[in-house]
Amino acid sequence: MSGAGLDLGDVLGTTARVVGKRFVSLLVIAAVCLAPSFVVGVVLALVGAGAQRMDPEQMQRLAGNPGVLGGLVGGAVIVGVLSIVLNFVSQGAMLYTTIEHMAGRNPTIGASLRVALDKLLPIVGASILVGLVVMGGTLLCVVPGVILAIMYYVAVPVVVAEGIHGVQAMRRSSELTQGNRWMIFFTLLIFIVIAFALGMAVGVAQMPFNMMVAEVPALAIVPLVIGFGQNILQAMLGSVLVGVIYARLRGIRDGVDVQSLANVFA
User: pLDDT tens digit string along 205-241?
Assistant: First the structure.
């Protein structure tokens, strides 16, 4: 496979097959890791529904209670940090699941999460560095930001599969993507279109419930559940896609098959 280029049909088809075959495992990983933010949303929706039944005097007393305000702010900060950390865990675990499945193995959910937790700090570090660089390029002009995002697109899979950290992972990603960046761009463009279409469909599904919230406040939970499903599906597709692209790039640039690639986890 060395010397060939990325094949758009192969990448999309393999991504769909991996998601289909490992759907339950990916679903559980994504759901567990995205659950904290969803729970907070549900709690806020229930609090909002209860607040609508309070009279103005009760609302004023509640708003003026420093303990309540401090608890809400503190809880929001804790859950926010936890959600960010679990997002990285989810990405690492699903990348591991993807590579192992492509190698013909049957990774367990527990094994996937263990690998992600073992590599959590390097994953966070590489993600932050890539985010800062891409943000800087985007502030200068949108085009440099897009180019940098594509160059460093597989930095996190490099961390997970090769054990390379930080700036070195970014350099490795730049090396792997060289010569295939246009195909990666078109692949991501298709993913964005799919995500946009999914978002539109979710918006339509949420609309009737949003319209009825004023009469039945508890119905505010239903759009949150629908949105939670959307977030899970997008996380699954995004993580598997980058894993597939990384595996194919390793074959193209290094002549490494997926079986050999997965042996680093053995």
Answer: 999 998 887 777 778 889 989 999 999 999 999 999 9
| Residue in 253, 251, 231 with CA at minimum distance from that of residue 11 | 251
CA distances from 242 to 11, 38, 144, 196, 245 (A): 10, 25, 20, 18, 5
136 touches 48 (CB < 8 A): no
Question: pLDDT confidence of 184, banded at 50, 70, 90?
Answer: very high
pLDDT of residue 70: 65
Indicate yes or no: pTM above 0.70. yes
What is the rounded distance in angstroms from the CA atom of residue 137 to the CA atom of residue 150?
A: 12
Task: Report in angstroms the alpha-carbon separations of 211 from 163, 222, 224.
Answer: 50, 12, 14
CA 127 – CA 115 distance, rounded (Å): 17
- Candidates 48, 176, 29; CA nearest to 89 is 29
Whether 189 shows a pLDDT value over 70: the answer reads yes
CB neighbours of residue 67 within 10 Å: 7
Distance, in Å, from the CA atom of 113 to the CA atom of 109, rounded to the nearest integer, reads: 6
Asked if 209 and 219 count as a contact pair (C-beta separation under 8 A), the reply is yes
Integer angstrom CA distances of residue 5 from 11, 150, 155: 11, 16, 19
Radius of gyration of the chain (CA): 21
Residues 6 or more apart from 27 whose CB is under 8 A from it? Answer: 232, 236
From CA 176, how far away is CA 169, in angstroms rounded? 10
Contact 262, 99 (CB under 8 A): yes
